[in-house]
Every structure is written in structure tokens, then in C-alpha cells.
Design goal:
This protein is mainly α. Among the domains are: 82 residues, Tetratricopeptide repeat domain (Serine Threonine Protein Phosphatase 5, Tetratricopeptide repeat), CATH 1.25.40; 71 residues, Alpha Horseshoe (Serine Threonine Protein Phosphatase 5, Tetratricopeptide repeat), CATH 1.25.40; 56 residues, Serine Threonine Protein Phosphatase 5, Tetratricopeptide repeat, CATH 1.25.40. The longest helix is centred in the first third of the chain and has 33 residues. The radius of gyration is 30 Å and the shape is globular. The relative contact order is 0.04.
Length: 425
């Protein structure tokens, strides 16, 4: 029988301790590798941030602004010390037309040491883009002389601003120069298409969007606008094909679903149209156009009782939309509520008369863009029978030409007073 000392010294006694040491060494090596990898990742954070910013800039060029914002937020989380991602988030918000958020990002970029001259340039571009050319026009030459990589963005803001201010000749001159200097950039064509779409010259709009899409086939925003132009030209099969391609590319894009639904509705395919509108509302429940088209479909399908609440809610949000007013009036009439329907029919009739006069005023303004009286009349008409925000912009454009124009000042003051009274409990 082996002694205790012999048993302790035997190979079988040493085996457990050897295994423990082996496991310990493996864990130590693994920990060292993890630390080393962590240091590499930590040291590489600026590189990862640069990559995220690059992906974000590409997304901006494709006008995929949600994706761009997500990439810039990742870059900011990885490296918040340089301000570049804050600057690009500001640009995204400028393109979305959200000046307050844009300004917040610019201030953060300034604190992080981003070049102040580029931040100032972005503020000037925001003023231009909104149509306030009088405040920024003096800086156009300086911006273009030192544009650098921002030249296309500057051209876009200037052209958009001239269009917003209804200075069409200057806008088209900028677009032509931009197209000539950057022949591979589809954006001048896109802006021309949007201009023609706003004027409801759908054939020209479709032509511009189609040419732009040939240059940038991955831009779903352009494909959607082309599809909408085709739908307005009653080319429903072609429009459906493009809306469907957008839906496959971006399954959660409510605009593609609503566009498809409208094509189906116009083709008399009510069941399929309703499915598309309901799918869009699951993605964006507060979407006014999703609720409007579902309400209009229900009214078309003879379900006025369910249509009226939907259309009435939309009408309270957007009382200046003629299609909304008319559809609500038709639904109320079908539901036997004729007196209520008559009020909306009367408003639509008055609005049509105002719109006819508005078209005449715009034709005159196109020939004489500096006429303050026309800008005032257009603004006042829109405050009463159109989008109030557009009305305010027209009145402000009159004040840019004549800062003391009494009628414009009075109209703005009256509208502000009326809104204040409506907002009081």
C-alpha cells in the first residue's frame, strides 16, 4: 500500500493542479487579448467616427435623411470632440426645414471647435433656402467665391430661395449654371421637377424626375416624386410600378404605401387600396394624408358614418386643404347632415374663386417680381383661403422689399392676434 507522501507525489495527484494552471493561463491570455482589442478599438474610435460620418454624408447625397442622421449620431457617440457630426446633423435639419434643431447642432459644433466660418455659412444657407433672400443675397458672391466642397449645397440653397421668393428668372439661371458646372449632379433636375410639380405642369415635372433618376437610380425620394407625377398624368400602371419599387426598397415608407393606395383607389380596387392606407397608418398613425385617404375611401365605399370622424379630424388640422373640405362635405351630405355639409361646400366655392384670382396674381408677379402690392395680396389670400404659413412667407417677402409696408404689417399683426385668441383656453 502506497504511503501518503507517495500518493501526493504521484502523477494522478499532480494532474488536477496542472489542469488548474492550464485553465488559468488560458484565461489570462484571453483577458490580455480582450484588453488589447479594447485598446485597439478605443484608439480606433476616431477612425470609426470618420467612417460613420462618411456613410452619413453619402446618405445626405442620396437624400436618405433618416439614415444620414443615424450615422451622424453614431459618429458623435464614438468621437464627440471635433464637432463634425454636429455640423452634419445641422445640415440634415436644414434640409428638413427645422431651423431650431439646426441651430442647436450648430451651437454644439461651435463649442467643439468646428470652423466658425462653415457654421456661419450654414446659417446663411438656411436663410436663403427659406426664401429670405433680401437678408442673405449680399453674401451670395462671397459664398460662391470660396465654396469648396459646399458649392452644390450653396447652389441648391440659392435656387430654392429664389423659387420660394418667386424670383423665377434668377432661380433658373442658378440651376442652369449648377447643371453646367456639375453635370453628374441630379439635384438641379430634381429642383426643376419640384418647381414644375408645384405649378402642376406634370408632364414637365415627370420629364425632369425621370432624367434625375437615370443619374441616381438609388434615390427613392426622386422615384416617389416621379411616381406622383405619373399618377397625376393618369399613367396609373407606370406610377404603380414606381411606387411598388419604392415600397420594396423601403418597406416602412408610408409615402410609397399611400401612393400605391391612391393608384388602387383610382383604379377602383378599393379593398387593396384600403390595405395600403391602413398599412401606412400603422407606421405613422398621425399622418394626415393617410387618415384623409382612408376617410375618402370609406366615403367612396358608402361608409359615411365611419368616414366623417376621420375627415372631420383632418379638416380641423388642415382646414385650408380644398380636397379635405370637399370630401368632408360629401361625407356629411351622405350621412344626412346637410346643413353642416353646406358650410363646407360654401367655403370650397369661395376658395375656388380666391384660387382663380391667386393664379392671376402669380402670373402678374412672374412678370414683375418686385411688386409689393401683389405679394401682399397673395399673402392675404393665403392667410384666409390657403396655408397660413405660406401666407406669412408672402407677407414677409413684401416686407423685404418695403420694410414699412403698412398693409403687410397690419395683416401680420391681425393674424397673430387672431391666433393668440384661438390658443387661449
Amino acid at each position: 500500500m502506497a504511503t501518503t507522501a507517495e500518493h501526493k507525489a504521484s502523477p494522478s495527484g499532480r494532474r488536477p493542479r496542472a489542469r488548474i494552471r492550464q485553465v488559468f493561463r488560458k484565461r489570462l491570455v484571453l483577458a490580455a487579448v480582450c484588453v488589447a482589442l479594447g485598446l485597439v478599438v478605443w484608439q480606433g474610435r476616431p477612425w470609426f467616427a470618420d467612417f460613420a460620418n462618411w456613410r452619413g454624408r453619402n446618405a445626405v447625397n442620396l437624400r436618405k435623411l433618416d439614415a444620414a442622421l443615424a450615422w451622424f449620431q453614431r459618429a458623435e457617440a464614438l468621437d464627440s470632440g471635433r464637432g463634425e457630426s454636429q455640423f452634419w446633423m445641422a445640415r440634415v435639419e436644414r434640409l428638413r426645414g427645422r431651423p431650431d434643431l439646426m441651430q442647436a447642432h450648430l451651437e454644439r459644433a461651435l463649442k467643439a471647435g468646428f470652423p466658425a466660418i462653415r457654421l456661419h455659412r450654414e446659417q446663411v444657407l438656411a436663410r436663403m433656402q427659406s426664401g429670405h433672400m433680401g437678408q442673405a443675397e449680399g453674401e451670395v458672391s462671397a459664398l460662391l467665391m470660396d465654396a469648396g466642397d459646399d458649392a452644390p449645397a450653396i447652389c441648391e440653397a440659392i435656387a430654392s430661395g429664389y423659387l420660394a421668393a418667386f424670383r423665377l428668372k434668377e432661380a433658373m439661371t442658378v440651376l442652369e449654371a449648377w447643371k453646367r458646372d456639375y453635370p453628374q449632379d441630379p439635384q438641379p433636375l430634381v429642383i426643376r421637377g419640384m418647381y414644375f410639380a408645384q405649378r402642376q405642369t406634370w408632364s414637365q415635372a415627370a420629364e425632369e424626375f425621370e432624367k434625375a433618376l437615370a443619374m441616381a437610380p438609388h434615390r427613392d425620394d426622386v422615384r416617389l416624386q416621379w411616381a406622383e407625377a405619373l399618377r397625376n398624368l393618369h399613367q396609373l400602371d407606370a406610377a404603380r410600378e414606381q411606387f411598388e419599387r419604392c415600397r420594396r426598397s423601403s418597406p416602412r415608407n408610408p409615402a410609397a404605401l399611400i401612393g400605391l393606395g391612391r393608384c388602387l383607389l383610382e383604379s377602383g380596387e378599393l379593398v387593396q387600396a384600403r390595405e395600403r392606407f391602413e398599412q401606412a397608418l400603422k407606421i405613422t398613425p398621425d399622418s394626415w394624408d393617410g387618415r384623409f385617404w382612408l376617410g375618402k375611401l370609406l366615403a367612396t365605399d358608402g361608409d359615411a358614418e365611419r368616414a366623417v370622424p376621420l375627415l372631420d379630424a383632418v379638416c380641423r388640422e388642415r382646414p385650408y386643404e380644398p380636397d379635405v373640405r370637399y370630401s368632408l362635405a360629401m361625407a356629411l351630405q351622405a350621412a344626412g347632415r346637410r346643413a353642416e355639409a353646406q358650410e363646407h361646400f360654401q367655403y370650397v366655392a369661395a376658395q375656388q374663386r380666391a384660387q382663380s384670382e391667386l393664379r392671376n396674381q402669380l402670373e402678374l408677379l412672374e412678370r414683375s417680381p418686385t411688386r409689393v402690392d401683389l405679394r401682399f395680396q397673395i399673402g392675404k389670400t393665403l392667410l384666409e383661403y390657403g396655408n397660413p404659413d405660406e401666407g406669412i412667407s408672402w407677407l414677409q417677402s413684401a416686407l423685404e422689399l418695403d420694410a414699412d409696408h403698412p398693409e403687410s404689417l397690419a395683416a401680420l399683426a391681425e393674424y397673430a392676434s387672431r391666433r393668440e385668441k384661438l390658443q387661449k383656453p
